[in-house]
Amino acid sequence: MSAYNEIDTEITDRDCLVEALQELGHVVQVHETPVQLEGYHGDKRQQRADVVIRRKYVGASSNDIGFVKGADGKYKAIVSDYDRHQYGDAWLNKVRQAYAAKKALKLAKHAGMRVVGHKEIPTAQGKRIQYVFQK
C-alpha cells in the first residue's frame, strides 16, 4: 500500500482550483464535505479530500489524488508515493500556474476589468503568462 503525502499550497479558491485542474485535462469531482480517497485496489483510505481526481483517471495501478481545505483556508494536495513520479513537484507547479491565471482573471473581472491582451514569457520553471487589463 502506497503512503499518501500532503503537500502545502497557497491555493484558496476551490472554483479556480477545479478550473485549473480541468484545463490541465483532469476529470475532477467536487464534494461539499471531504470524502475518503481510494487506493489502487479500490480500498478506502483514511485521507479525505473535497476535490478529487479518481484513480481511474490518474493511471493504471494509481491511487486517487485529492485536495483538502485546511483550517487556514489553503488547500493541501494529497498524492501517494507511487503517483509522485508523475504527479510530483513539476505537475503541482503546472497546477499552481494554471490556478494563478484563473485567480487573476477572476479578481480582474470582479474589479470590473477585462483582458485586452496577454503574452507568454518562457522561464526556467515553464511559461509565465502576463495579462494586460483595462477598466
Please outline the major beta sheet: 5 strands, antiparallel
The spatial strand order of the largest sheet comes to 1-5-4-3-2
- How many strand elements? 7
Number of helices: 3
Percent of residues in helical segments?
Answer: 25-40%
Structural domain tally = 1
Q: H/E element string?
A: EHEEHEEHEE
* Helical/strand content category: alpha+beta
Chain-averaged pLDDT: 91
Task: Give me some keywords for this one.
alpha+beta, 27% helix, two-stranded antiparallel ribbon, 135 residues
Break the fold down into its secondary structure elements and pairings:
Elements: E1 4-8, H1 14-23, E2 29-38, E3 44-53, H2 55-58, E4 65-69, E5 75-80, H3 89-110, E6 114-123, E7 126-134
Antiparallel strand pairs: 1-5, 2-3, 3-4, 4-5, 6-7
Helix pairs in contact: 1-3
Summarize the structure.
The chain is of the alpha+beta class and 135 residues long. It has helices at 14-23, 55-58, 89-110; strands at 4-8, 29-38, 44-53, 65-69, 75-80, 114-123, 126-134.
Describe this structure in words.
The structure is a single chain. With 135 residues, the protein is of the alpha+beta class. It has one domain (4-110). Helices cover 27% and strands 41% of the residues. Strand 4 (65-69) and strand 5 form a beta hairpin. Helix 1 crosses helix 3 (89-110).
